[in-house]
Amino acid sequence: MQDLKIEIVKSADPAKVLALYRQAGWWEMDDNPAFLDTVSSIIESTYLFVLARMDEEYIGMGRAISDGCSDAYIQDVTVDLKHRGKGIGKDIIKVLVSRLKEDGLQWIGLISEPGYERFYQALGFEVMPAYTPFLYKGKEGLSGGSDQENKQDNSNK
Questions:
Q1: Is the CB of residue 122 less than 8 Å from the CB of residue 87?
Q2: Strand pairing partners for 110?
Q3: How many of the other CB atoms lie within 10 Å of CB of 157?
Q4: 23, 90, 120, 141: which one has the fewest Cβ atoms less than 10 Å from its Cβ?
Q5: What CA–CA distance (Å, rounded) separates 75 from 28?
Q6: What is the pTM of this model?
Q7: % the chain with pLDDT above 90
Q8: How many angstroms separate the Cα of 46 from the Cα of each of 3, 63, 89, 153?
Q9: Could you list the residue range(s) of the whole structural domain that residue 34 is in?
Q10: Number of structural domains, the chain?
Q11: Could you tell me if 107 and 74 are in contact, meaning their C-beta atoms sit under 8 angstroms apart?
């Protein structure tokens, strides 16, 4: 593949990164110019941000969030539709996992969109059947009660 580079970066063109997010169906937001600052901050502040590019074209990305000591979570892995099926996503994951392991992080997790289980399993990830991912949606359940009481309350619903 011509001049493919997959590298860890701390800065990148936020408009090109945003285009990858949007092509993947994530962050379908308006074109507020201030949002580009948010994307820049994500790239700079993320523990590892990996970018795949050919010359100046951004064709894939992925990142890992971590405290750098114990756990890491891989997220936002995507490859431009024109370049899928060429092993670029696999290479992005390999760069992320390799660097995380070099840094001493052994617990590396991710949440996949449905349909990508085989892709991640082929790279050494396993489904965690004993765990359920959650997304905070803003409903207040944080007002008082012990963890045990809250667990019992939820089991009665």
A1: no
A2: 74
A3: 4
A4: 141
A5: 17
A6: 0.84
A7: 69
A8: 26, 7, 19, 36
A9: 4-128
A10: 1
A11: no
What residue has token string 């052994």?
106
Per residue in 73-84, pLDDT (tens digit) is 999 999 999 999
Q: What is the pLDDT of residue 87?
A: 96
- For residues 1 and 99, the model is more confident at 99
Q: What is the 3-state secondary structure (H, E, C) of the chain?
A: CCCEEEEEECCCCHHHHHHHHHHCCCCCCCCCCHHHHHHHHHHHHCCEEEEEEECCEEEEEEEEEECCCCEEEEEEEEECHHHCCCCHHHHHHHHHHHHHHHCCCCEEEECCCCCCHHHHHCCCCCCCCCCCCCCCCCCCCCCCCCHHHHHHHHHCC
Per-residue pLDDT at 25? 84
We report the CATH number of the domain holding residue 52 as 3.40.630.30
Token pair of 94 as six digits: 């390999």
Show the tokens assigned to 1: 């593949």
Examine residue 140 and state whether it is found in any structural domain, yes or no: no
**Dihedral sign computed on CA atoms, order 94, 99, 104, 108:** negative
pLDDT beyond 60 at 132: yes
